[in-house]
Design brief:
mainly beta, two-stranded antiparallel ribbon, six-stranded antiparallel beta sheet
């Protein structure tokens, strides 16, 4: 299986999702899988929350995180229409249900812009 293809969680991953975590996580709005620890929230360009409009005129509000272990990157990275100059973006999907949860941004560092409306 391609490492970039979302996969079903192993039994140990599924068990960790059902146990109460000591650390709060933001979760996928579709399946409730853990996406990113709340403690991984960061500011990028002076803000945690950013609102952007893509070339199709769809508005996205994204929250920035230093890590998102519950997401998996898919597709080619691109600098076309990037919202963060100097960073290439890659689509990020929920590891459990493959819902689009945001993008990772790759440049001098890596961070995740997760779509606010697709998280709980």
């Amino acid at each position: 299986m391609d490492a970039r293809t979302p996969e079903r969680p192993s039994s140990s991953e599924a068990e960790s999702d059902t146990r109460a975590s000591e650390e709060p996580w933001v979760r996928c709005a579709d399946c409730s899988a853990e996406i990113a620890p709340v403690a991984a929230a960061i500011s990028v360009n002076g803000a945690h929350l950013h609102e952007f409009v893509n070339p199709s005129a769809i508005t996205f509000v994204v929250r920035c995180f230093a890590q998102a272990p519950g997401a998996v990157g898919v597709g080619e990275r691109s600098t076309t229409w990037t919202w963060f100059p100097g960073f290439a973006w890659e689509i990020e999907l929920c590891r459990r249900c493959a819902a689009h949860v945001g993008w990772s941004f790759h440049g001098v560092s890596v961070f995740y812009g997760l779509i606010r409306d697709r998280l709980v």
